[in-house]
Every structure is written in structure tokens, then in C-alpha cells.
Amino acid sequence: MSFRPDHELHQRRFSRNLGLGLTLVAFVVLVFALTVVKVTRGDPMQAFDHTVRPELQPAATGGTQP
Amino acid sequence: MSDVQTYQQSGEAQFGDYVALLKPRVMSLVVFTALVGLLVAPVGVHPVVGFAAILFIALGAGASGALNMWWDADIDAVMNRTKTRPVPAGKVQAGEALGLGMALSGIAVVMLALSANLFAAGLLAFTIFFYAVVYSMWLKRLTPQNIVIGGAAGAFPPMIGWAVATGGVSVESALMFGLIFMWTPPHFWALALFMKEDYHKAGVPMLTVTHGRAETRRQILIYTVLLAPVSIWAALTTIGGPFTLAVAVVLNAIFLKGAYDIWKRPEAQAEGDKYAVEKTFFKFSLAYLFLHFAAFLVEALLKTYGLGGWA
User: What domain count does chain A have?
Assistant: First the structure.
């Protein structure tokens, strides 16, 4: 089985494609980081996971009851 | 206006050519001033949000640079300073510059709205519109005041940085705007004095072409005199302090001395020493802006240690 050699066009456009690819990856990473910061507002993220988590209990006063 | 101008395509456009469309050197000034605007604001911003905001402000500035290169390709091709830009050099087609500029403008404004706030995004959108439409398309070829009014576009970034943190404007952010706004005319007119053939060839109504060189020298002095109180006032607000005030006094004294020397000397003398005074003044103008904004930053840093600021 043999692959056809790359068209000369691919070589000419290699730097352009690589640059665009890396830019898009950086954009995805940035949006992900922004999402984490926006969702957690900088706090560690934790939620109910079927064990008792006292820190997730509402405060004795001022907390909302289910 | 029925001329059709074509540029010989030379080789394949590389990634760097598209980056060059975004005017990276202008972008570096935008990044620095916007960062200072963000960091000296009284409200803190999460580092990731701050980083993203600065990135998208820079991207918006780059997008307006690409739009400028699309519109001004004909005069860029004539001027020595700009004829190697990607469009007149035939590396990138003018239409590509337009497409890139429009797309990046949209991305930058939407992403700034999502990462920071709508007010900052609105200011960025207005800045891009102001630079691409009001300055490049409308004023640049129409009036010798092009630099004065167009300078507003370059003055917005610290205001946007401040708006990212606070969600609004204030006296402090308006004064940072005023500082760059008043600084731009002497900076560019000094350049126009020693790059005289360029603007003349391109038919851009620079003050040196329309009102003569003696008048340009006088205007440089006038704007430098007007810049000084803006600078001192900024140093007396909450973003300033004794350190900033000292730096501002020294910078303005040197800048005023340079402007006075430019005003005093006749054209023949300037030609005799190949515009040495004008070139020194131009170089110092870059240092002036950098050091002034750096002083705001140092003052903010000092405040975190309980020093600096007007207690």
C-alpha cells in the first residue's frame, strides 16, 4: 500500500496551517480557562457526590432550606 | 475614482504576513496601555479574565490595523515607510485584509463582552469604528487635523482596560485617554517633519504639506504645552502619587524643551543637521509615553506595600 506524496501546495502552506492550528488550540484553551473561572468565580468546584459533605451544608442561619 | 489598482502577488502568504496585517508594533503599545488601565483601576480582576480581556483588546486593535491596511493600500504603496506592508508588497490580497479585519473585529468585541463586560466591549467596537471609518476612510485624506482626531483611536485602550475592571469610565480613565490624545500630534508631526517626502508623495494632507513646516513646528509646541497640564492632573488623581508626579514633571520638562527647540530653529538649520533635533524629539516621545504609563504602574505597585499614592 502506498500513499500519494503530498501536493506541493501543502508544503507551501505548512507555516500558515500550523500557525492557524496553534492559534485555534490556544483559543480553545483560553475559552476553557475562562469558563472554569466564570463558573467557579475562582472558588474550588465541588458538588454532591453521595457522601456527607459538611462544607456543602447551608449555614445554620441564613441558609436556604430544601 | 474609477481607478483599479492591482498588486502583483509574490509567493505564498505565510502566517507571519497575516500577523503583520495586525500591526504588531502598534499592538504592543495597545497591550501596554490597556494593561496599565486595567491594573491601576480600583477594582481587581481575576488574572485569567484580565489576560483574556487584554488579548481581545489587542486583537480588536489588530483588526482595525488590518482594515486600515485594506483601505490605505494605495497610499501605503507610495510611501517608503509603508511600501513593504503585506498588501502593497503583494503578499496578501486587499480583500483578505478586509475579511480578516472584519472577522477579527467581530470575534474581539464578542469575546470581550463575554469575558469582561458589555461596556468595555462597546468601547472596543467604537474604537475599531473610529480608527477604521472616522480616521482611515474619512479624515486621513481630508484634513490636516487627521492626526489630532485620529489620535483618539489610539487613546482608548487604557480607558477600555479601566472599563474591564470597573465597568465604566472615570476622571482617571479620561485623563489617561487625554494623555495619549494630546501626545499623538507632537509625536506624529515630528515624524512628518523628517519623513517629509513620504506624505507629500502620497497626497495625504499632513500639516507639513498644507500649512508649511514653520506652522507644524508651532503646533508641536502648542500641543506639547497643552499636554503638560493633562499629565500633571493625572499624576494628582488616585492613579498618581508623589512618584508619578516627579516622573511627570521631569518628562514634561524634557518634552517641552524639545518642542521649544523644534519651534525655534529654522528649516535650513534642520536640513543642515539632517533633522537631528526632530529625530531625538520623536524617539523621546516614545519613551515619554512608556515611562509615564510605567509610572502609574509603579505607583499602583507601591500602594500594595502601603507606600505611594496620595494618602
Answer: 1
pLDDT, one tens digit per residue, over B166-194 is 999 999 999 999 999 999 999 999 998 88
Measured between beta carbons, the chain B residues lying within 8 angstroms of A34 are 48-49, 52, 114-115
In a domain, A29, yes or no: yes
DSSP SS3 for B311: coil
What is the spatial distance between Cα B305 and Cα B45, in angstroms, rounded to a whole number?
19
Chain A nearest C-alpha distance from B46 (Å): 8
Gap between the Cα atoms of B45 and B172, Å rounded: 18
The answer to whether position A53 is within a domain reads no
Question: Could you tell me the three cell numbers for B27?
Answer: 499592538
Q: Does residue A47 belong to any structural domain of this protein?
A: no
Partner-chain residue, chosen from A12, A19, A36, that has the shortest CB–CB distance to B12: A12
Q: Of A13, A15, A34, which has the smallest distance from its Cβ to B49's Cβ?
A: A34
pLDDT digits (tens, 9 = 90+) for B182-234: 999 999 999 988 887 777 778 788 888 888 889 999 999 999 999 999 999 99
Quote the pTM value.
0.87
Asked, for residue A30, whether it belongs to a domain, the answer is yes
Beta-carbon separation of A42 and B46 below 8 A: yes
CATH says B16-169 is which class?
A: mainly alpha
All residues at 6 or more sequence positions from B270 whose CB lies less than 8 Å from its CB, including other chains:
B193, B277, B278
- Our CA-based measurement puts residue A46 at a distance from the nearest CA of chain B, in whole angstroms, of 20
ipTM, two decimals, is 0.81
- Domain housing A30: 11-39
